[in-house]
Design goal:
This protein is of the alpha/beta class. It is built from eleven helices and 15 strands. It is 31% helix and 23% strand. Bound molecules: NADP nicotinamide-adenine-dinucleotide phosphate. NADP nicotinamide-adenine-dinucleotide phosphate binds next to helix 1, helix 3 and helix 4.
């Protein structure tokens, strides 16, 4: 089978596509013929060996996928050959086949495309856990989404609207702000402008955002917190801008505000009930068609490097997806 193989940690332009053996599932495992895989921020760091945990070499990157179950080894309840599934693994998705335990996948709604299935899990789990469970976003409140045209950002716009909030999207270009509007943002601001807090104040009718979804970090995070409404909740999701901001402690005091961290990688272990609740709500929205995961750009497997570089150069709109097979 064809697979992207990282033999040495290196920038993506030095990583190749190889022909390797199709893996065999051990008893209790399933094999999925991958049709689409999506690229996340963390995948880029892992390829270069810059993530907090290193995958042992050689490895195939890619954590999210959608495809068709191709083999089931031993007794696996609920999963049969030929099922359309979407799932997540630590790595291995940028290949024609992946081996996973059955709990790593869920059955895809019929109406969902393979690309949308591959783009679903991390971003939407993050957005609903962050906004619903941690940020306690309520209908009628105002939500500010930073990095709103990015993968988690656009998911937060859609989830914010489904929770009944008014959504203000912050992004760096006209194209990105238009993209955010097309997925439901009620207002947009250009947070690269020095006076963007004035625009935010106007966009919230002078109230300030009740909840801030923040996958960006850097100075913009501190500026956003300065604008938060009384009793506001600032949810820390990531640091795409590359620097970790330091918040002066007087600001939460003055605002009655909360700074709340989110790490979806830990919730299955630490808060299994929350994970079950969030996944059940997401599945309900997917099945009744109220939620359709946003697919940014789709690349061929031969072109996988471009999927990474588009994301890494701040050029991406939504999640980057690699189509692996028809
Ligand atoms: N905590 C969690 O559980 C969790 C879950 C998923 C992701 N994350 C993290 O969240 C962050 C964002 O993930 P994502 O998938 O949304 O990424 P993404 O699709 O690349 O979007 C990130 C956004 O950040 C903005 N940005 C600002 N400065 C940037 C810079 N120097 N380089 C790149 N982007 C910059 C960009 O929007 P503008 O151009 O409009 O500024 C971009 O659209 C990452 O750090 C990721 O690891 C955390």
């Amino acid at each position: 089978m064809r697979a992207v193989v990282v033999e040495q940690y290196a920038p993506i332009d030095q990583i190749g596509l190889k022909e390797i053996a199709v893996p065999e599932p051990a008893p209790g495992q399933i094999r999925v013929r991958v049709q689409a895989a999506s690229i996340g921020f963390v995948d880029g760091l892992k390829v270069e060996g810059r993530y907090q945990t290193k995958d042992p070499l050689p490895f195939t990157p890619g954590a999210e996928f959608a495809g068709v179950v191709d083999a089931v080894a031993g007794n696996v309840a609920g999963i049969t050959q030929g099922m359309r599934v979407m799932g997540a693994a630590r790595s291995g998705a940028l290949a024609e086949y992946i081996i996973v335990p059955p709990e790593a996948v869920e059955v895809m709604p019929d109406a969902l495309s393979m690309e949308a299935g591959a783009a679903f899990r991390t971003n939407y789990l993050t957005a609903l856990y962050a906004l619903g469970e941690r940020g306690r976003l309520r209908a009628g409140e105002q939500l500010l989404v930073l990095g709103a045209a990015g993968g988690t950002g656009v998911a937060a716009i859609q989830i914010g609207k489904l929770l009944g909030a008014r959504v203000i999207a912050a992004a760096s270009t006209d194209e990105k702000r238009e993209f955010a509007r097309s997925f439901g943002a009620d207002a947009v601001v250009d947070y690269t402008k020095s006076d963007w807090r004035d625009a935010l104040k106007e966009a919230t009718g002078g109230h300030g955002p009740d909840v801030i979804f923040d996958p960006v970090g850097g100075e913009v995070s501190v500026q956003a917190f300065r604008s938060i409404a009384w009793n506001g909740r600032h949810v820390v999701v990531g640091f795409a801008a590359g620097s970790i901001p330091a918040l002066p402690f007087n600001l939460p005091l003055l605002k009655g505000g909360l700074l709340i961290g989110v790490d979806v990688a830990q919730i299955a272990r630490r808060e299994p009930d929350a994970q079950t609740r969030v996944m059940a709500q997401l599945s309900a929205w997917l099945n009744d068609g109220r939620l359709v995961p946003v697919v940014g750009k789709v690349f061929s497997l031969e072109d996988f490097r471009a999927a990474f570089t588009t994301m890494q150069t701040r050029a991406a709109l939504g999640k980057m997806v690699v189509r692996i097979a028809e």
